[in-house]
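Final report, Chapter 2: Outcomes

The project's central promise was a pipeline that accepts a single protein chain and returns its three-dimensional structure in a standardized token representation, suitable for archiving and comparison. That pipeline is now operational. To close this chapter, we reproduce one record exactly as it appears in the project archive, with the input sequence first and the structure output second.
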Amino acid sequence: MLPTRQTHRLSHHRVSHPGANYFLTINTKEKLPGVTQDSIAKQIKTTLRALHQDEAITLLCGTIMPDHLHLLLVLGNNLTLSQTISKFKNATRKALAAHTLYWHRNYYDHRIRHQTNTNAFARYIFLNPYRKALLPADQLWPHWLCNRNYTPDFQEQLNPDSTPPAAWIQQDTKLDEILSTDKS
């Protein structure tokens, strides 16, 4: 008999730190694709902007992938991380349900302990659609979001058309490597 996934344990030790930087991954249930469909992506962007304007978060950057999204944000003072994610999922639920998609009940979060590491996470998020071969390196991913007041260091090294150098995609930095450099 195969072991049962214990995803409910993901939230067992979850602690919210207002003002802290977080890297988040939110998946669709059963990792079904479709989140990049126009109506869903538009609702996701609208909801993230609303959370940003309400100061629940300061969105630094993110990318919407077919079956998940990655976000880099600063948690605000008025909601816990769980409350913020719940509010996000509730506000986007109808857009997903219209395409028979649903959010996975849990999410992955990592509180970034070292301020300088936000750049590594931002670069990982930016390169995600390229590493997954969702588009050629000479095209811009339409679902990349970046706060105009946040400029990750890697952006200075992009090609003139804001696309990544091909060598970056071939390097394929793993998330585990980035996480290991951010230990407390």
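Archive annotation: The mean pLDDT is 91.
This record, like all others produced under the grant, will remain available to the consortium after the project formally closes.
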